[in-house]
Amino acid sequence: MGIFSKTKPAETSQDLKESYFTASQGQLIRSRFKSNRTAMVAGWALSTMILIGLFAPFLSPYEPTMGGRDKSYENGPPQFPKFWDENGFSARPFLYTTERKRSIKTNFRWVLTENREKRRYLEFWVDDWEYSFIDINIDLPGTTFDFELKALTFKKHLFGMDKGGIHLFGTEKSGKDIFSRTLHAIYTSLAVGTLGVLLSFVLALVIGGVAGYYGGWIDSILQMITDAIRTVPPIPLFMALAAFMPDEWSAETRFFFIATILGLIGWPTLARRIRTHLLSERSQEYVLAAELSGASASHVIRKHLLPSFTSYIIVDLMITFPYVVRSETALSFIGLGLTDPVNSLGSLMQNVSKADVLLNYQWYFIPVIFFIAFVLAFVFVGDGLRDASDPYSHVKK
Amino acid sequence: MLKFIQFTITRAFLSLFTLLAVSLIVFSLMELVPANCAERYLAFKNTQGQNITIEDIAAEERRLGLDKPFPIRWATWVANVFFDGDFGDSCILRLNINELLSDKFWISLGICLAALIFSYILAIPIGIYSATTSNAVTNNFIRFISYLGLALPNFLLALIIMLFSTVFFQESLTGLFSNEFRDAVWSFDKFKDFLSRAWLPIFVLGWSATAFAMQTVRALMLDEIGKLYVTAASARGISGRKLLWRYPAKHSLGPVINSLGFDLNRIFNDLPVVALILTLTEAGALLIDALARSNDQQLAGAIIFLLTASIVLVNFVTDIMLALMDPRVRQGLVG
pTM above 0.90? Predict the structure, then answer.
């Protein structure tokens, strides 16, 4: 028995070792990522937010635009559905009816009062405003690129009220629902980030690839240009580019233009990393060995060089993402970026620095929490991926 | 020594080249704006009741040199900027840009440099401390702060601080000067007033840079502490703070100095938006005004160019400093 108990762990550790040494790179990365608790939590949070962003129209009870505004509930505080109050318990969550009054007593400001006798009930799976999951409408100057597509149109929403409105995060000054706008803003941030990152990634791959692969004077010149662009503070540069947008452009066109600008300026850091990596990998012994065994250039690039830094690139893209989102937010905040009806966190925050808002309508700040959570989740996942994709990260510690 | 001078000169030429490239970027941006200066001048005259013809515009273009091809106009602009420090006139405000900017630009630069210094004064000790301590709570806290530096952009931080100070203290903390000093000439009292208000923009602007610098310092220190020469030094009986400052801290300082330029870049990045929120009256606010409201490309170009030029200058200075301080770099230059 004693011998048995001693050999058994040895066997399992042998198995473990074997599974460790035969595992593919992807499996190793996955298992290392899973053992990182913070990154896993962030990963779940991020997936949830991506889902929320994708299904924003379904989850939000009102249109995030002027069309969905609630005229009788402007600058209204957040409403939380209740299950019980002094008048008794209700299995269905309810809200009170609000009434709006304005008279000489209130100094001619609209004042909201709630009537606790009149309950309104929450309903699930309701029909309301129409939305399409695929809704592309490009309207550039000229007609050659104009394009319109609507598909997957639905009217169902997760929840709504039997009468009147429900505003979980309150409303802003024209009565737009902040909850719905926040969800749509998450979607916009995701979309801008994805487009911007993809574009800068393609540029970085081409420019960094050329610089790293050819080296020599091409590399020097490309490096000088990259450095010059890197020295200019990006947000003022974005602002300068965005300022040229004609006012008559539609919100969708502005959206694509902004994403393009962000992509066009975001490439230098990434290009530099790709170049450095290529330069150092190119002179590695395994590349030499492959070349000596008669591998063609394309084989070396495809089978040896690219796999050596795909994980780096993925990590880099994850890390670039928050920067793009941040820049977009700053642009929209100052009014040079996205405008109504496209919602983004920046445009949501546009009016909050007014004293009136700071003193009376603090719920305008609720979207900030989501933005911070969103970026933090991205950063933690990116960091976790970086640690997981580095084969030496565990050896060092 | 000769090698060092040679290095300085090469580096200066490289900086100059970067500046030229930047000026090309900025100038092209200025050119992208629809309607040139001549049209704008005359559009103004038109509002004054004068009748304007196409010939008038052409004549005005000739007077301003706008009929010349792009490279020549760029060369003239660059020559004016480099040799006379003259950015020309703003078409919208019809004022000389130098007069418009002078004070405001120096205030902005002062605030940004103060923010940079502030962030390193905080980041270096905290970074070193967190690299040497084994306290998990402290380390996680610092890690979290540095992530927050990215997740909470400076302008959102400014908004949140404003929210709290208005809710709790009924004071919105905006502006750079109190009313009595706004148009006064610089004096000691004005400076005191300025300092009593400038701490918030300095803190807010330094925020991201601090968070990042903290992480950088920590990572560099961790790298250096694990090296054999530190073990050797401690074997010789050097310990505690002396060991840290004498060896690893000194060595990890190099990359930190190198990153100064990029941190300044990070600070400039947020300058305009923070200026808008805190209603500062300096170059950042002027830049927003020029871009978002009046489409004043001459002014915007001048500000962006000046900001970038100060980054290039900082990069140049840090490179020279690094060469002076770090024997490895010096050796690399000479050998």
Answer: no
